[in-house]
Amino acid sequence: MFEKFDDTARSALVMAKDIAAKFNQDHINTSHLLLAVTGYTSPEIRWHNPPGISPKTEAIIAALGTTADAVIAQTVAAMKYGTSHDDGKHYPFTPNLKQVLEYALRSSMMLGDSHIGAEHLLAGLARNSSGTAGAALLRLGITDAKIHTAIQDSTPPPSPTAARPCAVYLPVGKSIFKNGGKIYPDLATAQAAHPDQEIAPFVIHLGEGEFFDVGTAHPRFSSWGRFASYADAFTAAEKFREVQGADIQIRILVPDVKELRGKDSAGRDVVLGRSVEYAHVKMMSRIAAAHADAVEASGKETAGV
């Protein structure tokens, strides 16, 4: 699990140990971690430059209608000083804190994230209602479900040319890689075109930098627009077909990145620049009549062929 922790989560765990020492505790509990996640510090803590609260966590707490200071005040008010003194020994996690870390992992997986950050630790703390940190967050009306929503709202959408899956729909038994296969952008459109056939989803995997291109098919391909999703490309192709009355194609273009290399003033090989060309087609769908009536796998065909 810990290999998935990003810098904000790792810093929070280290800081939690120092906070435990500050309160003379011989263990690390949920309150220590909550204070670390929210940027708590004091003169007794050994950090010369405390990491503070991460910008994303601060934005999430603000979206929940409160502040990090309010969370800290609620947490500190319920804490007590112990009698232990820091002697460099190992600080074990309490059972509740171990559960929080498991919850944080689940939150990361539910949200589709590839890392565990301070924001996921916050969600795990909120879900652990039996811990002192969970109780402090609940007093402020903060739950893990609300944190999940705030995380999703604060996450920027992926780049339209990032590697991504794209769902399309087709009649069962048909292949999008053979002539005659019909593909559609959504279930309703496919069912309307094939009322007596079972419809199944099919996932097209687009690589980094790939996108859908729409244009005339003959005599030579002329691009009219490039789109991040098949649904947008399909809608545009239908509109173009009504105006042009000609075969329209939807293609997936594959980027060909070329590096311009040279030497710097010290004689070392360096990349001076990069150029991107879209000379290859991964898939082509022809829009004719009233719908997509043929899909061809063209491998590495060159554009315009």
| SSE topology string | HHHHHHHHEHEEEHEEEE
Look at the structure and name the CATH superfamily of the largest domain: Clp, N-terminal domain
The percent range for strand residues is 15-25%
CATH-defined architecture of the largest domain: Orthogonal Bundle
Descriptive key words:
305 residues, alpha+beta, Double Clp-N motif, six-stranded antiparallel β-sheet, two-stranded antiparallel ribbon, 8 strands, 36% helix, 24% strand, elongated, disordered C terminus
Can you give a write-up of this model?
- This protein is an alpha+beta fold.
- It folds into two domains: 153 residues, Orthogonal Bundle (Double Clp-N motif); 139 residues, no CATH class.
- The chain contains ten helices and eight strands.
- Helix 1 packs across helix 2 and helix 1 packs across helix 6.
Summarize the structure.
The chain is α+β, with helices and mostly antiparallel strands and 305 residues long.
Q: Which SSEs are present, and which pair or pack?
A:
Blueprint: H1 7-22, H2 30-37, H3 55-63, H4 68-77, H5 95-110, H6 118-127, H7 132-139, H8 144-154, E1 164-171, H9 187-193, E2 199-206, E3 211-216, E4 222-227, H10 230-244, E5 248-263, E6 269-288, E7 291-296, E8 301-302
Helix pairs in contact: 1-2, 1-6, 2-6, 3-8, 5-6, 6-8
